[in-house]
Design brief:
The protein is of the alpha/beta class and 450 residues long. The protein has 3 domains: 128 residues, Rossmann fold (3-Layer(aba) Sandwich); 241 residues, tm_1862 like domain (pyruvate-formate lyase- activating enzyme); 55 residues, Nucleic acid-binding proteins (OB fold (Dihydrolipoamide Acetyltransferase, E2P)). It contains 12 helices and 21 strands. The strands form 6 sheets. It has a 6-stranded parallel sheet with strand order 2-1-3-4-5-6, with helices on both faces. It starts with a strand and ends in a 9-residue tail after the last strand. The structure holds S-adenosyl-L-homocysteine, iron/sulfur cluster and FE3-S4 cluster. The site of iron/sulfur cluster has 10 residues, from helix 5. FE3-S4 cluster binds next to helix 1, helix 3 and helix 5.
């Protein structure tokens, strides 16, 4: 057996892609290893979203090169590949700075890994493969191997046509593409058959999904979820990441109609200032977002929200930032991610005047994060005393406990045996911190079940 080591950065789409890359090379005799030193093939699946994410690649490559040289000294070959969004955006630069990298390929070409490996092992030169091939990569991927856990990812949509002015994704992932309904249902059934109890549908713009259904008509994400809700064995459905503009009536109604669709939504707003939202090319206002939250809460009253925020977008004034804080207070988030604006070469925002001072960004980020932490803490505290279904998906670092997730994605530790993993039980929340909860299986659950 040959050994494969994959290191993944970035979003869940990259996590999904890494698993599929492993599937693609399994028939070539590669089995996964956690040790880079012993790998015959090392793949770095990279993220280009912010500058920091990109820097990490080059420091890791240096480490890989040492292993490659050590192996060469004993007559063995270690192939090094750079995949993902940095590869797509900076392929030639990677080859220039790191000539020992054998293969550079983007998110849309990894199904061609066997051909690429054959080429480099024949020493026919290095490979740079960053086209956006017309054929859909999904049609050329082997069936997925055993799922690693109770919770699985399923990519239903790729790419982005939104062109937010700060963002590299439309350039690294290419145009929007939606997989047909039948292929998604078949993959969901296989995942369920292998033990997945929670499936998260993935897409850079997942709610822009518009796949073809069996009759040849176009189906939106609401329709897809209704179809998927019939797949036996899956207790929970989620989807990420959504754009406010694509949250249509049918999808909102799906939250009312499908009990297995979790009442928790990651819906990035980025800013609460209309001027900044316009400059970001988001094409929605802060009040549009407030309205959406209201409609979703009307459809599903216990809905919890999460978001992404960028502080220090070019031209952001104090008043703009205050508008963001106001929006946060109005909505009340269960959880959120926030970032300092990172200037990405080639994006329209990188060329905008009035780039914001680093110190100002630091101060705004700290203030926003303090408010978001307070809200997260409040949301968690409000759960104490409530009983909610918990899906157990792993052992806890606390002795004699199992680890699970609430419908709102909160991490929760519960005393109980490992055999609860893969099951969902009602759990009473007894204690809450900012990052996790502590609970106990509800009193009315028969002893024999626990
Ligand atoms: N498709 C999703 C998110 C994609 S990237 C959406 O539309 O929301 C994930 C998050 O990274 C974004 O929501 C944004 O908050 C952040 N991000 C993207 N580009 C960035 C940049 N140049 N600087 C800082 N944060 C950025
Ligand atoms: Fe980037 Fe905007 Fe597309 Fe999200 S919607 S991936 S932020 S361009
Ligand atoms: Fe990063 Fe590419 Fe995802 S840039 S966030 S890995 S789509």
């Amino acid at each position: 057996m040959k050994k494969l080591h994959i290191k993944t950065w970035g979003c869940q789409m990259n996590v999904y892609d890494s698993a599929r890359m492993a599937d693609v090379v399994t028939p070539l005799g590669y089995a996964p290893t956690d040790e880079m030193a012993e790998a015959d093939l090392v793949i770095f699946n990279t993220c280009h979203i912010r500058e920091k994410a990109t820097e990490k690649l080059f420091s890791e490559l240096g480490r890989a090169r040492e292993h490659q040289e050590a192996r060469a000294a004993v007559g063995e070959r270690m192939l090094i590949a750079v995949a993902g969004c940095v590869a797509q955006a900076e392929g030639p630069e990677i080859q220039r700075r790191a000539p020992y990298v054998d293969m550079v390929f983007g998110p849309q070409t990894y199904h061609q890994l066997p051909e690429m490996i054959a080429r480099v092992t024949r020493r026919a030169g290095r490979v740079l493969n960053t086209d956006f091939p017309a054929e859909a990569k999904f049609d050329h991927l082997p069936l997925e191997q055993a799922v690693s856990g109770v919770s699985a990812f399923l990519s239903v949509q790729e790419g982005c046509d939104k062109f937010c002015s700060f963002c590299v994704v439309p350039y690294t992932r290419g145009a929007e593409y939606s997989r047909p309904v039948a292929a998604i249902v078949a993959e969901a059934e296989r995942l369920a058959g292998q033990g997945a109890r929670e499936i998260t549908l993935l897409g850079q713009n997942v709610n822009a999904y518009h796949g073809e259904d069996a009759g040849g008509a176009t189906c939106g994400l609401g329709g897809l979820l209704r179809r998927l809700a019939e797949v036996p064995g899956v207790l929970r459905w989620r989807y990420t990441t959504s754009h406010p503009r694509d949250m249509d009536d049918d999808l909102i109604a799906a939250h009312r109609d499908i009990p297995h669709l979790m009442p928790f939504l990651h819906l990035p707003v980025q800013s609460g200032s209309d001027a900044i939202l316009a400059a970001m090319n988001r094409k929605h206002s802060a009040d549009d977002y407030r309205g959406l939250v209201e409609r979703l809460r009307a459809a599903r009253p216990d809905m919890g929200f999460s978001s992404d925020f960028i502080v220090g977008f070019p031209g952001e004034t104090d008043a703009d930032f205050q508008a963001t804080l106001r929006l946060v207070r109005d909505v009340g988030f269960a959880q959120a991610y926030s970032f300092k604006y990172s200037r990405r070469p080639g994006t329209p925002a990188a060329a905008m005047p009035q780039q914001v001072d680093e110190a100002v960004m630091d101060a705004r980020l700290a203030e926003l994060q303090a408010l978001l932490r307070e809200q997260q803490d409040g949301f968690n505290q409000a759960c104490v005393g409530r009983t909610m279904p918990v899906l157990f998906d792993g052992t806890s670092r606390r002795d004699g406990h199992v680890f699970g997730r609430t419908p709102f994605m909160q991490a929760i530790h519960v005393p109980g045996p490992e055999r609860l993993i893969g099951h969902a039980l009602p759990v009473e929340v007894v204690e809450a911190g900012t990052n996790s909860l502590q609970g106990r299986v509800a009193a009315n659950v028969p002893e024999a079940v626990i």
